[in-house]
Specification:
The complex is a heterodimer of chains A (about 450) and B (about 100).
Chain A (H helix, E strand, L loop, with lengths): L2 E7 L3 H12 L4 E4 L13 H4 L9 H14 L3 E4 L2 E7 L4 E6 L2 E12 L3 E3 L12 E3 H11 L2 E2 L3 E5 L2 H12 L5 E5 L5 H8 L6 H16 L3 E3 L6 E3 L6 E4 L2 E4 L2 E5 L2 E3 L2 H5 L4 E4 L4 E4 L12 E3 L9 H18 L5 H19 L2 H7 L4 H4 L7 E3 L4 E2 H10 L4 H7 L13 H12 L3 H4 L13 H12 L1
Parallel strand pairs in A: 1-2, 1-6, 2-3, 6-20, 8-16, 10-11, 10-16, 11-12
Antiparallel strand pairs in A: 4-5, 5-6, 7-17, 13-14, 14-15, 18-19, 21-22
Chain B lengths: L1 E2 L7 E7 L2 E6 L4 H8 L5 E2 L6 E2 L12 E4 L2 E5 L10 E4 L11
The chains are: A alpha/beta (about 450), B mainly beta (about 100).
The complex binds flavin-adenine dinucleotide (FAD) and FE2/S2 (inorganic) cluster.
Amino acid sequence: MSGHDLAIVGAGPAGIAAALEGAALGLSVLVLDEQDAPGGQVFRAVERAAGDPALAGDYATEGMALVRAFRAARGVEYRPGTTLWHIDTDTLRLSLLREGKAEEAGASRLLLATGAQERPVPIPGWTLPGVMGAGAAQILLKTAGAVPAGPVVIAGQGPLCWLIAVQMLRAGAGPVTLLETTRGSAATAALQAGGLWAGRRLLLKGLALVREARARGLRVVRKVRGLQALGEGRVEHVRWEGNTIPCGTLLLHEGVIPSTHVTRALGLEHRWDAAQLCWRPTLDGWGATSHDGIAVAGDGGGIGGWEAAVATGRLAALDAACRLGRIDTAERDRRAVPHRAALRRALALRPFLDRLYAPAPEVLAPADDSTLVCRCEEITAGQVRAAARLGATGPNQAKAYLRTGMGPCQGRMCGTTVAALIAAERGITVEQAGVLRPRAPFKPLTVGALAGLAKDDAA
Amino acid sequence: MYAQRPEARPATVEVLVDGQVVRVPEGASAAAAVLLAGLPALRSTPVGGAPRLPYCMMGVCFDCLAEIDGVPNRQACMVTVAPGMRIAPQRGARVAGPRA
Ligand SMILES: Cc1cc2nc3c(=O)[nH]c(=O)nc-3n(C[C@H](O)[C@@H](O)[C@H](O)COP(=O)(O)OP(=O)(O)OC[C@H]3O[C@@H](n4cnc5c(N)ncnc54)[C@H](O)[C@@H]3O)c2cc1C
Ligand code: FES
């Protein structure tokens, strides 16, 4: 078993930054990622797609620079196409799946930099073919250069909606309509959060995007409520409060939430973030979790965007080097200063964004009883409410009444919605309803893959 | 329906989606190939028989589970295409964990 000093799961900005910092401090670093190339979600496929004019911007410049530095780094072993499916929390042995075969790795310390996922947006009809996440369509653009054909509707809110609208329009998709769900009262609340001056660089970037979107002909409808996807066999129309428009592809987006599947399965401490309306692992200022040997960096620890992910990755690597005795705490703290400043700058605008783009209650807990909540097992909001009335006190108990969280996605898509529905029905907080505790394997495994592992162990 | 942009990403890899030959760019996922092939569905649900296509493209929703080169229950969005890859709709139950 190769014993690295630091194993990092995720080669997005957080994992890459941590690897660069760790290797510079002399740590032997292992980085594994289930994607076939470095970059994470934000800089996915950048080595192949940086030349695509539709993706011009941070992606092609800063993303490319980060990935180049990662490729050039010494002291970093990078295993692409490698999925983490189990961690032994006593020994920090990692069980991995690579090219259909199970393998293992060991390290003294573990950093989880597994990023974010799009917040599920359970509206009536969201399971129809032709409906997908806005980020999913962006992945198609980054990895395959493809865009939807025919009228595109982006429905939801947040900075990514504007970025993706612009990228789609640059790539020749269209017409593109943005149905923005931001509520009228949100702007006032957001302005009270402040941070506009400290966060002005990001704010100006955002405003430039909005201008470009308008100039490229994005149609924007504001304060949209009551969204529905309609169609026979695939989406054909989008409806909201009294309006219906034709639609070839409907892209839903209500922001991103930390991917906590692995940290929850490990039983690490989590807390409900009332500002970002999501679960996040409980971390200290270095990303340390409730487990001695495991830290978290990047959006997986709370949504901050890629620049914050870089800073938290660097901080976590400094702490790892310190705990491994390579640097003392004074040295760690000294080296942390610029990264803490970068983190503050990157997060300055967050409170404003969190308030402006807080999802409406109907996004968290769909009002209509017939809306599907669990895509895997086809369970509706009404069924979850009925289970709550019968005695299900949280998402873990709901499994016994329904099968929510027991399908192939293991609750990645329905977990927070089920908790929100139960909380509302029982008059408790989401925190009281509790967080779904998934189990390993984190990803599907074939019997063949496991058999290979058993043979290796016997040898 | 999706449109390729050969000027940005030439379609150089030939794969089979449900028996149909499709050319896609290098680096595309098997799920992308399914969408680019215009397949109406990758599976239908056991209860309602409703059609489904990939939703998240990043390994979260599992709506893309497919049979790839004869191996069922693979997340098509996490598999990069290779020349001659056979991608077929999932037959039988979808399985998340190891089962015999
Ligand atoms: C679909 C999507 C698109 C986005 N697009 C943008 C964008 O264009 N611009 C922007 O500013 N922000 C974007 N974001 C926000 C994003 O969260 C960024 O802030 C940034 O990617 C966060 O960096 P990170 O390093 O924390 O995580 P990520 O960049 O998400 O990197 C995490 C990495 O961990 C890997 N991973 C996860 N689980 C496992 C596992 N079990 N085994 C092995 N590897 C694993 C993933 O493959 C991924 O490469 C997007 C988010 C999503 C979900
Ligand atoms: S499309 Fe969601 S897991 Fe593959």
